[in-house]
Amino acid sequence: MVYSPLDALKIAKRNPDRRVVFMAIGFETTAPSTAMTVLRAAAEGIGNFSVFCNHVTIIPGIKAILDSPDLRLDGFLGPGHVSTVIGCRPYEFIAADYGKPLVCAGFEPLDVLQSVHMLLEQLDEGRSEVENQYARVVPWDGNPRALEAIGKVMELRPYFEWRGLGFISHSALRMRDEYAAFDAERIFDLPGVRVADPKACQCGEVLKGVLKPWECKVFGTACTPETPIGTCMVSSEGACAAYYNFGRFTRERVREATRA
Question: Which of 98, 81, 100, 78 shows the shortest CA–CA distance to 89?
């Protein structure tokens, strides 16, 4: 396990007789560090280093959720870490075209509370706007140097398969031809293996607001943070993992209110 792609590059330098592949995952949050590492590897001529690029982009995923016929979401808390890179402007279509408010939120408890308050104020007043609660960190137009690094090293894939959402066009990144020497997909003969979501997993419905996490058939039984089945439980930031670890009292109150 490495903390940074640069750590993987150091491993490649220390082991010139071995090929080192960095598994690059994450949204635009982590893509700049991957891109900068590839640029460093190219500048230093580290030929035994490559990247298996599986970075995804936030906007197509949100749009796929918004286009779902069974959507039941009233608004969005925008991801602060992604927004530090892409800014707030890319979210404007959510309010303009779909009439859904969005607030870019920070991660401290007060950040989350203020963001929820700002979102509820918009709903109460009948407004649909993009607001930036996390302005101390998130620039409206994003981080130009980070975006430049991504654009120089990577390009959009024609399509990408998301667990729980299926295939979404232009929703992920791949290495540009200029950096093919550092692209693990081209260096190695990788099989095109598809891993289908278990039929019992209902992460897609959770993401669209159709189900609360505890309403999933396998939540808390077959699917837990220790034995995750779906994406919403795999990530510690996922809705199901959050509900499992912190939402039990809320779940009990809902059940009591339903029985009453």
Answer: 78
Q: Is the pLDDT of residue 129 over 60?
A: yes
CB 175 within 8 A of CB 185: yes
- Three-state SS string over 192-214 comes to CCCCCCCCCCCHHHHHCCCCCHH
Which pTM does this prediction carry? 0.86
Answer whether 239's CB lies under 8 Å from 232's CB: yes
Grouping H, G, I as helix, E, B as strand and the rest as coil, residue 191 is coil
H-assigned helices in 18-130? 31-44, 58-66, 80-86, 92-98, 109-125
pLDDT in tens, 59-109: 999 999 999 998 899 999 999 999 999 999 999 999 999 999 999 999 999
Pick the residue with more confidence: 136 or 252?
A: 136
Q: What whole-number distance in Å separates Cα of residue 44 and Cα of residue 38?
A: 10
Phi/psi for 177 (5° steps) reads: -60, -35
**Rounded to whole angstroms, how far apart are CA atoms 149 and 64?**
26
- CA quadruple 237, 2, 33, 114: dihedral positive or negative? positive
Task: Please give the pLDDT value at position 41.
Answer: 98
Any idea what the Cα angle at residue 130 is, between residues 126 and 134, rounded to 5°?
Answer: 125
Of the candidates 245, 213, 246, which has an alpha carbon nearest to the alpha carbon of residue 231? 213
